[in-house]
Each structure stands twice: as structure tokens, then as C-alpha cells.
Specification:
The complex is a heterotetramer. Chain A has one domain. Helix content of chain A is 88%, strand content 0%. In chain B, helix 1 packs antiparallel against helix 2 and helix 2 runs antiparallel to helix 3. In chain B, 76% of the residues lie in helices and 0% in strands. Chain B has 4 helices and no strands. Chain C is globular and about 60 Å long. About 9% of the residues of chain C have low confidence. Chain C has one domain. Chain C is mostly helical. In chain C, helix 4 crosses helix 12. Chain D has a two-stranded antiparallel ribbon with strand order 1-2. The longest helix of chain D is centred in the middle third of the chain and has 32 residues. Chain D has a domain of 236 residues. Chain D has 21 helices and 2 strands. Helix content of chain D is 76%, strand content 2%. At the C-D interface, helix 1, helix 2, helix 3, helix 5 and helix 10 of C face helix 1, strand 1, helix 4, helix 5 and helix 6 of D.
Chain lengths: 106, 139, 272, 510
């Protein structure tokens, strides 16, 4: 087994392991949960880009993509956090979240 | 060969931690513990996997022809690692704070509820309102 | 009713699109018309690009050469599209104040345009400390990386659009970390509007230079008369780089302009 | 420099826009002179292009010097039709620009530089679409045109204009993406983007020309272009967008954007797919003529129900688009329908420009936006009234005006090909136009001057301040409407001589 095959295996495993995060994006229950899931998927996409580079034998090229993607992912997460924080303080999300926390507590 | 083996070991360790993060984000009961799983497991697994690949790039360092670009690539991977190390922690912090102000409440065992109610001065009025309403609605 | 109509329209569109799939060339077929030209004789332009790019322009990356040289006329207008988007958003959203209000806002912007303002009036100090400290490390590196991408359009996938996005992101990060005022202190509003225009001007201006050497528009080969080194091929390579700089300027400033105007509803105060 | 005229036509407004954006924010009084200089340069260059085309013949220009037979670079091509359209665009844009000096008054003065930037960029898009010989380049320029149009519609401060701009944005984006899908399919089938190159490939390889990919590409390109021009079932955005935007923008967009889309349709049909598309599929072309008839009828009926002047004019645009699409698809042997459509693009640009300028003058100077406001108005402003009358008569199709000749050629083509329904719709729509305009003439010339006219004048502070700047372009537009009709012969000869004959040569080669 060469390292390329191993890399493909790692990539597939990463994709499979992303499924829980995807589930969290779909299930919620709050918007913040979805953003946490999306952030996790984004971080792993950075890794996947490196792996794709290894598989294609062009790591020097894909490493730039990975770095750019990581930067954009970081900016996106911070922006989402800032944006939703304002929303929550204005009391828009509260109605649904209070019900959710009641359910979980009960 | 040893280096390949070591890097494979690092990558597999990363996958294991990522599995932990995945289980955590799926199974933990409230936002903050899920955040905890995602933040820690995700960051560590990413660092380990990329470190594994960086190590693999250095496998034939003695070969003068390939070594310059290989070292460059490995250095770039280290830059990614450093960046993710900062960025992941920061975004986790920002998201957790946003979640707190958004009105997410941690799930707390009933007997500790009063003790661990969180720093009172940072609680927004909205969160307090939320807390009161949940108290009222409980049987 | 509307939904039903929309569904039917979408299904019909999809059916028409899929109708032709049967006649498509095989995926990755080296003999398909786009890859090798029509069997009737004429060579496809892609063959020409792959065979002659390095000879014509001394640029190893075919995509960059096609983008900025062979089809540079398209890219000029794509840059203009980005400028248009920035100007249009500005013209629609920006809230313009009267004279008496302007004075007060001017002083306010001055107040918060210093260093990373880690303490805000509305008690967000803690958040600003963590994100602000991280961004103090990240932003300069991101900007350096942006310049690297712009400069590396020749050998690797990169260039003005991508590098401009990274540079613009760095300014957005600055705004997220220290408040919009701190970012506007570094890239003022009249500055970024001018920079966006200047980018397109640089692009079109480099193209226009070749007119003075009695060559066609955007024929960078004419620049060899100015540069005096390396012949026409190197002149093309340098021309492509100059053009990428112009694109990067426009993209950077328009990205920041969009963020600033959209996140504050044109007030340019407060924001995220 | 004279060998670069085709590209300078496009570049002059681009540089103008950039310079206005750079210096205009500092000194707002620079905007208008810079914009005027840029468009005047375009105007002069387009005269040069028309002269060259009329004396020498079609003019190819290869951007970047990539003179390759198989479309490596981007080719510009000026021929009998599009050089004239370039001239028309330059004229209409100049008139709209002169009209729009300080168009917003003092209210939004801080934003006026950006109005000029968008205005000039819209001109870049229109000039570029007209002169390019590359199918993908058309898409890029359609995007510029569309984005600037959305901005120019939404720049009006009212809430209605923002809503109209949003509708326009959604539908316009769908149209542009349809065009892009079509071009993508086309490239997949032939491997080239150069229009002339695609034409030769399709003519040489009938098995490609008859494949489903090409058919789908044609359908999507046509759908996209029809959406952009507001043909009948796809016209929903048009009346709101053009009537709720500031009159400075409407004067540029209403006469030109739809006409340029019609031109794109004609160029794609005959420069890329070939005339065979129409003549070999009589069933489909009959259907398209039927749609065009529907567009004419719908536009006329909608216009009858409107009481607002600008909205009525917008509905008439829908009908006019029907004329041109129908004329293009007649498929008559004498090609008179096609000639009529091409001539009508120019004529309609002039007529619509004249009418919209007049409507703008009425709205700005007398606050008259609805028919009943016009009562007795024409006696108070005889010059504007005279110009509006000329424009209206041209729209109806009264002989010495340009509208008559385009209808004459369209009907001649329809008789040749036997599309009687189209003739009926054309004549019926002329009748409706006559009803509409004579109703306006009656109200405006013979109606009672309202008692409160003095106070309404007091309510319009802009009256008289820039009245001369607004009336002068209106008079020029009216004069051009008349002149284009009287001297129609050389224009028709140029259109017929260069393009229609070229099409015949190509279709004979097949």
C-alpha cells in the first residue's frame, strides 16, 4: 500500500467523519449550533484540500488553496458570531431557544 | 520508511480525535458542551493530520533535488497549523460568547443550578428573562 | 399557485437542459470539440493556448495567460463589473448626511480610528480582546499572503481576483476585530472608492499604452519598447502582472466597500 | 489613432467613468464635463466607424493583436447595422446626459458622481455589446449593462423604485444566466467562442448544426435575450423598472437597453446560427411570430389602461419589441422584414428617447406625471409640446417620420411571407397608438388650464432653473426622429447592403 492509497483512505474517512457535523447543521436546534457544525466542516475542508494535493501530487499548489480557505473560514465564523450576537440581543431568536432549552432540561 | 510510518501514525491519531469530536458534537446535550467537543477535538485532529502530511513531505530530505521545495511545502503546512491553532481557538471563543449572548443556556444538574448560574454581571437582560420564563414553565 | 407555477417552470427548464445531455461529448474526451477542435479542420483555441502560451507570454500558468492576455478584454470588463457592483451598492445604500451632521460624525470617526479599539462603549470589551488579539497576529500575515497570491499568478493559481479577495478579507477581519472605525481609519471611504476606480484605470491604461506604439488595444507586446528588456514575450509577462495589480486593487476595495455598506446599512457606524 | 476607432468607442466612457469616480467625489462640478467629453469622443468615433463601414466595408479589430483564425483572442466587428446602432447609442446617451445635468437637484447631490459613473458604465456595456464579435464577451457586457441598470433604477430615492429594481434584478439575473448556459452549450458543441468562427464551423458541419446541443443552446440564448428585452410573457419587470426610476436614468435605459437586446438576438441568430434556423423550421418560426403578435397586442392593451404617462410609454415598448422580434422571424424571401426590424431598432431608439425626454420635461417642470395633469399644458410650453407631438406621430407611423418607414418595411416583409396575423396586429397597434396619442393631444392642447396651475408651479422649485438644458436635447431628439424618417434611404441601403447580403451569401454557402 503506497502513501497515496493511504491518503485516499484518510480522505474518505474524513468525509465520513464529517457526517456528524453535517447532522448538527441540519438538526440545529439553534442557529449557533449550525454555525459550529459549519465551522467544523470548514476546518476539515482545509485538511481535505491538503489531502487532495497529496493525491494529485501537487501539494505546493493546493497548500495555497488550503490557507486561503482557512482564512475565509475563520473570517466567516467571526462574522457569523458577531452578526448573531447582535440578533440575539435584540431578542429575535429568543422565542424558539427558550422552548428548546425547556425540552432539554425536562 | 520510519518517517512514513510516523506520519501515518500522526494522521491516524488525528482521525481518532476527529471521531471523538464527531461523537461529541452529535451526542452532547447542550450548545456549550458541543462547542467544547467541536473546538478541542476539531482543532487537535486538524493539527495532527496536517502535521502528519508535513512530516511526510520531509521524508527524503537527503535528496538535494527535491528537498528545497519539500521543505517549503512543509513550512507552509506549518504556517497552516499555526494559523489554525490561533484561528480555531479564536473562533471557538467568539462563537461561544455569541451563543451565550444569543440566549443559549448550559444544561446544569438541578442541585448545582444556583451555584453554577454563571457570572451574573455578564448576563444580559434577555438571558435573564429567558431563565425566568423557563423556571415558570417547569412543573 | 405561484409555487406550482415556479415548480413547473423549473421542471421544464431542467428537462430542456437534460434533453441535450445525450449528445454531449464524453467526460474528459480528448477529441471533443472544446479540447481538440471540430473534426472539420479548424483547431480549437484551447489547443493553441496549451501549445503556445509559454512561447507567447513566458507565463507557465495557462489560465493566467488566457485570463489576462488572450481574453484580457473580457477580464477588463469583469473588473468593471466588480467596480459597478461596488459603486451601485454605495449609491443605493450609503446614507448621506447634511452638512451639520457631517461635522459630528467626522469627529467620531477620528476618535475610533486609532489603534485597535479594544474597549467599546456598549460593553463588548471581552469579545474585542480575544478576537482583537488574534487578528493582530492574523491580519498582517493575511495581507502578506494576499500580496503573495497576487504576485504568484504567473506560476501558480493566483492573481488579482484571488489575491484581492484575501486582501479584502484582511480588512474585513480588521473591521470585525476592532470595529468598523478602526478599519476605516486605515482605508478611508474616499480612499477605497478612488482605489476601486484606480484599479480599472490601471488595467485599461496599460492596455491603452499599446495604442501609442501603433499596436492594438491590450497588446502588451508593445510595452517592450518601454521596458527595454526581454523582448515581447517578457513584456507580455510584465503586462499581465501590471494588469493583475489593477484587478487586485479594485477587488480589495470593492470587497471592503460592500462589507462596510452592507453591515451598517450605509451608516458606516457601529456595524458588526 | 484612427485604426483603433472601434475600441475607442467602448473605452472612452470606461475611462470617463473611472475618472469621474476618481475626481468627481472631490469636486462634483467636474463630473458633467468629464462625462460629456467621454461621450462626445464616443460619438465622434462612432461617426468614424460608420463612415468607414459605409465606404470600405465591415471592420474587424482584434483586441490584443491576436489575429488568429480560430478565435484565440477577442474580435470586434463593425458592420452596417451595428455601426449605425453605435451612433444611435452615442446620440441617445448624449441627449440623456445633457438632460440629466443636476438631475436630482440639490437633494442627493453627494451621490451625483456615482450617478454619472453608473451612467457611463451603462454606456460602456451598450457600446461593447453592440460592437463585439465574441459570444462570451457579450455575456460579460450584458452583466455590466444589467448591474448598472439595477443601480440606476434603485438610485431613485422612492421605495417603489427599490422594489422595481429588485424585481428587475431577479428577472434580469435569470435572463443573463440563461444566456450564459446557452453560450456554454454552444462552446461544448463547437469549441469556439468567436461568432464568425462558430458560423463557419456550423456551416461546414451539418451534423453538429443539427445536434440537440445546438438546439438547446439556441433555445436558452433566445430565452435569455427575450427576458432581457421584455418580450410578452417575460415583460413583467419592464413597466415598473422604467417608470419608477429617476427620469435621468429612464432617458438612457428605456430607449437603449431593450433595443440592444434585440440587436443581440439578431446578431446571434444570423451571425452565429444562420438564417436556416428560421427558414428550415417554419413551425417554430410561426410560433415565435405568434408570440410577437401576443407581445404587440398585450403591450397595446396595457398601454390603453394606463393613466400614467411613463407607464404608458413603457407598455408601448413591449409592443415595439414585438414588432422587432416578429419582423426578425418572418423568414421572408426578400429579407424586408429583417431590414425593417433593424431599421426599427434605430427608429425606436430615437422615438422612445424623444418621448421619454418629453415625459421627463413635463414631470420635472410642471409636475405632470399622469394624463389628467397634462390638461392645457401644451399651450404653456410650445417647444416641448411640439417635440412630444413629433414623437407621438412617429410612434403612430405618420409618413414623414421614421416610424412609418419601419412599419412599411415590416409589413412588406410580412406580405412576402404571408403572415397576415402579424400585419393585423401591426396595424391594430398603430391604431391603438393613434388613439393614445390623440387622446393626449386633445387633453393637452384643448383641455382647460387648471385653476391651481399657479400654485402647482410654485410647488415645483426646479422649474426654469435648468429648463433650457432639459428642452434642448428634447428638441434635438424630435428633429432626429424627423430626419431619420426623411433621409431613411441611405440608412436602409447601408443595412441592406452590408448585412442582408452577407447573410444571403452565407446561407447560399450552406
Amino acid at each position: 500500500m503506497t502513501f497515496e492509497h493511504f491518503s485516499i483512505g484518510v480522505g474518505v474517512a474524513l468525509l465520513l467523519l464529517m457526517i456528524p457535523a453535517m447532522c448538527r447543521i441540519v438538526m440545529g436546534p439553534t442557529t449557533m449550533d449550525r454555525i459550529v457544525g459549519a465551522n467544523m466542516v470548514g476546518t476539515k475542508t482545509t485538511v481535505l484540500l491538503v489531502i487532495i494535493g497529496v493525491i494529485f501530487g501537487k501539494v505546493d499548489m493546493f497548500i495555497d488553496f488550503a490557507l486561503t480557505y482557512a482564512l475565509l473560514n475563520f473570517t466567516g465564523a467571526i462574522a457569523a458570531a458577531r452578526y448573531l450576537r447582535h440578533k440575539g440581543r435584540r431578542g429575535i431568536v429568543l422565542a424558539s431557544t427558550s422552548e428548546e432549552s425547556v425540552c432539554e432540561r425536562a | 520508511m520510519v518517517i512514513s510510518f510516523l506520519s501515518a501514525l500522526l494522521i491516524l491519531a488525528g482521525l481518532v480525535f476527529f471521531l471523538g469530536a464527531g461523537v461529541g458534537i452529535l451526542r452532547f446535550p447542550d450548545f456549550f458542551s458541543r462547542m467544547h467537543a467541536a473546538g478541542k477535538g476539531d482543532t487537535l485532529s486538524t493539527l495532527l493530520i496536517i502535521a502528519g502530511f508535513a512530516l511526510y513531505q520531509m521524508r527524503d530530505l537527503g535528496d538535494s533535488e527535491a528537498s528545497v521545495s519539500a521543505v517549503l511545502v512543509a513550512l507552509k503546512m506549518l504556517v497552516i497549523i499555526a494559523f489554525l491553532y490561533i484561528a480555531s481557538a479564536t473562533s471557538t471563543s467568539a462563537l461561544a460568547e455569541a451563543g451565550w449572548e444569543d440566549g443559549n443556556d448550559p444544561v446544569i444538574a438541578p442541585k448545582h443550578e444556583n451555584r453554577l448560574a454563571g457570572p451574573p454581571e455578564s448576563r444580559t437582560a434577555a438571558a435573564d428573562l429567558n431563565r425566568n420564563s423557563t423556571h415558570d414553565s417547569q412543573p | 399557485m405561484q409555487k406550482l407555477f415556479a415548480t413547473i417552470a423549473v421542471i421544464i427548464t431542467g428537462a430542456i437542459l437534460l434533453n441535450a445531455v445525450e449528445d454531449f461529448p464524453r467526460f474528459g474526451d480528448p477529441h471533443s470539440p472544446p479540447n481538440s477542435g471540430v473534426s472539420g479542420g479548424s483547431v480549437s483555441s484551447s489547443v493553441h493556448y496549451l501549445q503556445n502560451t509559454y512561447l507567447d507570454t513566458r507565463v507557465p500558468n495557462v489560465v493566467t495567460a488566457v485570463l489576462a492576455d488572450y481574453r484580457g478584454y473580457d477580464t477588463l470588463f469583469e473588473t468593471a463589473v466588480i467596480l459597478t457592483a461596488g459603486i451601485a451598492v454605495f449609491a443605493i445604500l450609503r446614507v448621506v448626511r447634511r452638512k451639520d451632521e457631517e461635522e459630528s460624525t467626522g469627529s467620531e470617526e477620528k476618535a475610533c480610528s486609532g489603534e485597535f479599539s479594544t474597549s467599546d462603549s456598549d460593553g463588548e470589551g471581552r469579545h474585542r480582546v480575544v478576537v482583537g488579539t488574534a487578528c493582530r497576529v492574523v491580519v498582517p500575515l493575511a495581507q502578506l499572503f494576499g500580496f503573495y497570491i497576487i504576485a504568484h499568478g504567473h506560476p501558480s493559481p493566483g492573481g488579482g481576483f484571488q489575491g484581492g479577495v484575501v486582501l479584502g478579507t484582511s480588512f474585513i477581519l480588521l473591521a470585525l476585530a476592532g470595529g468598523l472605525g478602526s478599519a476605516l481609519g486605515r482605508l478611508r471611504e474616499d480612499m477605497y472608492l478612488r482605489l476601486a476606480c484606480l484599479g480599472v484605470f490601471i488595467y485599461a491604461g496599460i492596455g491603452l499604452l499599446s495604442l501609442f506604439f501603433r499596436r492594438n488595444f491590450l497588446d502588451y507586446g508593445a510595452l517592450s519598447g518601454l521596458l527595454q528588456t526581454g523582448g515581447e514575450e517578457m513584456a507580455r509577462s510584465h503586462g499581465i502582472f501590471g494588469v493583475e495589480l489593477g484587478v487586485a486593487m479594485t477587488v480589495t476595495s470593492v470587497m471592503f466597500a460592500l462589507f462596510a455598506n452592507l453591515s451598517t446599512r450605509g451608516e458606516l457606524k457601529g456595524g458588526l | 489613432m484612427s485604426e483603433h476607432l472601434p475600441v475607442i468607442v467602448v473605452l472612452a466612457p470606461l475611462f470617463g467613468a473611472v475618472i469621474v469616480g476618481f475626481f468627481g467625489t472631490r469636486d462634483r462640478h467636474l463630473c458633467f464635463p468629464i462625462a460629456l467629453t467621454a461621450l462626445a469622443l464616443s460619438f465622434v468615433c462612432s461617426i468614424g466607424v460608420v463612415h468607414h463601414v459605409a465606404t470600405v466595408g465591415a471592420w474587424d479589430y482584434f483586441v490584443g493583436g491576436w489575429e488568429s483564425p480560430h478565435g484565440v483572442g477577442i474580435q470586434l466587428r463593425a458592420d452596417g447595422v451595428n455601426s449605425l446602432l453605435l451612433l444611435a447609442i452615442a446620440v441617445v446617451a448624449l441627449l440623456a446626459l445633457v438632460y440629466s445635468i443636476r438631475q436630482d437637484g440639490e437633494k442627493d447631490a453627494e451621490k451625483s458622481p456615482f450617478f454619472y459613473v453608473l451612467f457611463l458604465l451603462l454606456c460602456v456595456g451598450l457600446f461593447g455589446i453592440t460592437i463585439t464579435g465574441d459570444a462570451f464577451n457579450v455575456y460579460v457586457l450584458i452583466e455590466i449593462t444589467a448591474l448598472t441598470s439595477y443601480g440606476l433604477v434603485a438610485i431613485g430615492s422612492s421605495r417603489r423604485s427599490r422594489v422595481a429594481a429588485f424585481q428587475y434584478l431577479v428577472i434580469g439575473t435569470v435572463g443573463a444566466s440563461f444566456y450564459l448556459i446557452g453560450v456554454g452549450y454552444l462552446y461544448l458543441a463547437v469549441g469556439s467562442l468567436n461568432m464568425a468562427d462558430i458560423r463557419t464551423i456550423l456551416a461546414a458541419n451539418p451534423e453538429i448544426a443539427n445536434s440537440r446541443i445546438i438546439g438547446t443552446a439556441l433555445v436558452f440564448i433566445l430565452l435569455g435575450v427575450w427576458t432581457k428585452m421584455g418580450l410578452f410573457p417575460l415583460h413583467g419587470w419592464l413597466p415598473n423598472a422604467y417608470s419608477y426610476c429617476p427620469s435621468g436614468s429612464a432617458n438612457l435605459m428605456a430607449p437603449l437597453v431593450t433595443k440592444v437586446s434585440v440587436y443581440v438576438m439578431i446578431r446571434i441568430l444570423f451571425g452565429v446560427f444562420g438564417l436556416g434556423v428560421i427558414t428550415e423550421n417554419p413551425g417554430w418560426s410561426d410560433l415565435v411570430v405568434l408570440i410577437a403578435v401576443g407581445s404587440i397586442v398585450a403591450g397595446s392593451v396595457m398601454a390603453l389602461t394606463q393613466r400614467e404617462i411613463k407607464k404608458m410609454l413603457c407598455c408601448l415598448i413591449v409592443a415595439e419589441v414585438g414588432y422587432m422580434v416578429g419582423g426578425t422571424w418572418l423568414g421572408d424571401a426578400g429579407r424586408w422584414g429583417l431590414t425593417g426590424s433593424m431599421y426599427h431598432i434605430l427608429a425606436d431608439a430615437m422615438m422612445t428617447s424623444c418621448l421619454f425626454l418629453a415625459a421627463g420635461v413635463f414631470a420635472k417642470q410642471f409636475g405632470a406625471t399622469r394624463l389628467e395633469h397634462l390638461s392645457g399644458l401644451f399651450r404653456r410650453s410650445p417647444w416641448a409640446a411640439g417635440a412630444f407631438t413629433l414623437g407621438g406621430l412617429a410612434m403612430i407611423g405618420v409618413p414623414p417620420m421614421c416610424g412609418f418607414f419601419s412599419k412599411f418595411y415590416l409589413i412588406r416583409g410580412a406580405i412576402d411571407s404571408g403572415h397576415w396575423l402579424y400585419i393585423v396586429a401591426l396595424l391594430g397597434s398603430s391604431l391603438v397608438n393613434a388613439i393614445l396619442f390623440f387622446r393626449i393631444f386633445e387633453i393637452a392642447y384643448f383641455g382647460e388650464v387648471p385653476e391651481s396651475s399657479e400654485s402647482s408651479e410654485g410647488g415645483c422649485p426646479t422649474r426654469g432653473r435648468h429648463a433650457a438644458w432639459r428642452t434642448a436635447p428634447l428638441l434635438v431628439a424630435a428633429a432626429l426622429t424627423l430626419l431619420l424618417g426623411i433621409f431613411n434611404r441611405p440608412v436602409i441601403d447601408l443595412i441592406r447592403g452590408t448585412v442582408v447580403e452577407n447573410i444571403d451569401i452565407v446561407s447560399m454557402q450552406e
